[in-house]
């Protein structure tokens, strides 16, 4: 499995350089924005897209068939994508929050450690949630269709959210941020586990 | 002892079906797997390596059920396909980094020797290589973990004769060790005439011919006659017939017997390509 993760990291080298450039731009933006959490989230999104890009590169190289010839089980192939996704989610969170923290310190406006933990928790949870939905879709439908489907799912979710707006927003306002973060993180971790088993079932049943 | 034993392999697609495909690759031999495009060669290979789920049949490699022991067996197998490989941003040195973590017997020194032999720079990216060099890199990669079984899907397709010859030499060297075997899928039958011990011919998802190559070349023939003589030739004596303006040609299974039966007709030895063409046209099995 480590071979597959290394393969993805090597494949993503050039893309990661672009992400590094984007981070430099975001660092400048953070300086001028009042809310650095927004930039932290944007950085995390960049990192969350890396595993998705790895699927695109696999597709370009027709890697999947070659992967079947290697002494690795399908379960391990799926697991390698999840390890990569979790690692990039964590890295995106650390870099995003760390950058915001650094800029705040330089500006002489040190952030509350509680706020930092909350922002980091939410960003990490959201990143895991994104991967958990996206990866099974990619294993089933491929990258291009999955992007479109994710947009559709998000649109429907936003619509449903708007319809059920009032009671839910009241409940959110009354719940403590710590409890919300803990719930979101726990939900994201559970969803990641469920997502892995779904992806595995999809991939093990699939013809390459 | 066989390297590969496939029995009764079945796979149904909406527009294509593998129909009870059975074949064997004896140890120490090269089996040429021929057939026109779309005949089922790649589907059979995909089924052998577990890339597709079959509707029936069994695959044994080195006497072990591949469905149960596939991961362990793949340590002794190398597969080279026409197009599927590492991303084109990879260089040979990157491939070595990854493969070292895949195979317990990955041999960096051997890989470097193949790179030197093929004049492949270790740091040049795949996208900068010609088609022939890409295939050489794929073959160098395939051979560098000391596999005992090589499965090749159209490895010489689209390559010039010089590169093809160079690659065939590597395969012939590989097979010098009698523990090693090759299943070589190709529609370039001249390559297989040079190196194969057995020929398996698949047509429309069904194996229609499975014989030692030397037997085929010794027995089959192309019998020629005028159009007016064709009706005097027993239809059971030939596999297929091609008619021209001034005569016709037939593929016969036993050219010695046909020479005795039709002494006035010309009979030439048949090439593997002739055999494939006539069987494909006649649809016989």
Give the secondary structure arrangement, pairings included.
The complex is a heterodimer of chains A (208) and B (285).
Chain A: H1 2-11, H2 13-32, H3 36-61, H4 63-68, H5 74-106, H6 113-141, H7 143-163, H8 165-174, H9 177-205
Helix pairs in contact in A: 1-5, 2-3, 3-5, 3-6, 5-6, 5-9, 6-7, 6-9
Chain B: E1 2-12, E2 17-26, E3 30-34, H1 41-48, E4 56-61, E5 64-65, H2 66-73, E6 77-80, H3 92-99, H4 108-117, H5 131-143, E7 149-153, H6 161-174, E8 181-185, H7 189-195, E9 198-203, E10 206-212, H8 213-219, E11 221-225, E12 238-244, E13 247-252, H9 255-261, E14 266-269, H10 272-282
Parallel strand pairs in B: 3-8, 3-9, 6-7, 7-8
Antiparallel strand pairs in B: 1-2, 1-4, 4-5, 9-10, 11-13, 11-14, 12-13
Helix pairs in contact in B: 4-5, 5-6
Question: Outline of this structure?
Answer:
The complex is a heterodimer of chains A (208) and B (285). By secondary structure, chain A is mainly alpha-helical.
| Fraction of residues in H or I helices of chain B | 25-40%
Strand elements of chain A, count: 0
Give me the strand/helix succession of chain A: HHHHHHHHH
Low-pLDDT runs of chain A: none
Number of domains of chain B: 2
At CATH level 2, the architecture of the largest domain in chain B is 3-Layer(aba) Sandwich
Fraction of residues in H or I helices of chain A: over 70%
Enumerate the strands of the largest sheet of chain B in spatial order, edge to edge or round the barrel.
6-7-8-3-9-10
Overall body shape of chain B: elongated
Question: Largest inter-chain interface?
Answer: A-B, 26 and 32 residues
Rg result of chain B = 21 Å
> How many separate domains of chain A?
1
Tell me the β content of chain A.
under 5%
SS-based class of chain A: mainly alpha
The chain-level mean pLDDT of chain B equals: 92
In total, the number of strands of chain B is 14
The whole-number mean of residue pLDDT values of chain A reads 86
Structural class of chain B: alpha/beta
Percent in strands of chain B: 25-35%
């Amino acid at each position: 499995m480590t071979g597959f993760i290394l393969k993805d990291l090597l494949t993503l080298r050039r893309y990661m350089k672009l992400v590094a450039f984007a981070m430099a731009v975001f660092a400048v933006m953070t300086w001028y924005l009042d809310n650095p959490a927004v930039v932290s989230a944007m950085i995390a999104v960049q990192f969350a897209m890396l595993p998705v890009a790895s699927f695109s590169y696999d597709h370009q190289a027709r890697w999947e068939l070659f992967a079947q010839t290697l002494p690795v089980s399908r379960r391990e192939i799926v697991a390698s994508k999840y390890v990569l996704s979790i690692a990039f989610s964590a890295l995106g969170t650390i870099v995003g929050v760390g950058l915001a923290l650094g800029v705040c310190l330089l500006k002489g406006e040190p952030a509350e450690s509680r706020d930092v933990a909350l922002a980091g928790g939410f960003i990490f949870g959201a990143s895991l949630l994104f991967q958990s939905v996206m990866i099974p879709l990619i294993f089933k439908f491929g990258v291009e269709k999955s992007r479109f489907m994710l947009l559709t799912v998000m649109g429907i979710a936003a619509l449903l959210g708007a319809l059920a707006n009032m009671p839910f927003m009241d409940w959110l306002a009354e719940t403590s941020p710590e409890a919300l973060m803990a719930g979101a993180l726990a939900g994201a971790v559970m969803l990641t586990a469920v997502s892995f088993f779904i992806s595995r079932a999809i991939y093990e049943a699939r013809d390459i | 002892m066989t390297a590969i034993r496939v029995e009764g392999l079945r796979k149904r697609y909406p527009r294509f079906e593998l129909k009870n495909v059975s074949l064997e690759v004896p140890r120490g031999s090269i089996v040429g797997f021929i057939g026109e495009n779309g005949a089922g060669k790649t589907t059979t290979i995909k089924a052998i390596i577990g890339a597709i789920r079959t509707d029936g049949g069994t695959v044994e490699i080195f006497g072990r059920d591949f469905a149960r022991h596939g991961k362990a067996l793949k340590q002794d197998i190398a597969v080279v396909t026409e197009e599927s490989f590492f991303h084109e941003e990879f260089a040979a040195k990157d491939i070595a980094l990854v493969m070292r973590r895949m195979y317990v017997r990955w041999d960096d020194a051997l890989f470097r020797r193949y790179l030197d032999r093929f004049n492949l720079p270790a740091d040049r990216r795949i996208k900068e290589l010609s088609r022939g060099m890409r295939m050489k890199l794929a073959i160098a990669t395939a051979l560098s973990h000391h596999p005992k079984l090589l499965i090749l899907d159209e490895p010489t397709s689209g390559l010039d004769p010089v590169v093809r010859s160079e690659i065939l030499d590597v395969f012939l060297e590989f097979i010098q060790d009698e523990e090693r075997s090759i299943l070589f899928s190709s529609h370039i039958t001249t390559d297989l005439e040079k190196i194969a011990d057995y020929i398996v011919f698949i047509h429309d998802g069904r194996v229609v011919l499975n014989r030692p190559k030397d037997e085929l070349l010794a027995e089959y023939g192309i019998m020629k006659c005028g159009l007016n003589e064709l009706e005097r030739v027993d239809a059971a004596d030939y596999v297929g017939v091609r008619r021209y303006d001034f005569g016709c040609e037939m593929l016969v299974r036993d050219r010695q017997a046909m020479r005795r039966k039709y002494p006035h007709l010309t009979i030439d030895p048949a090439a593997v390509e002739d055999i494939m063409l006539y069987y494909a046209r006649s649809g016989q099995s």
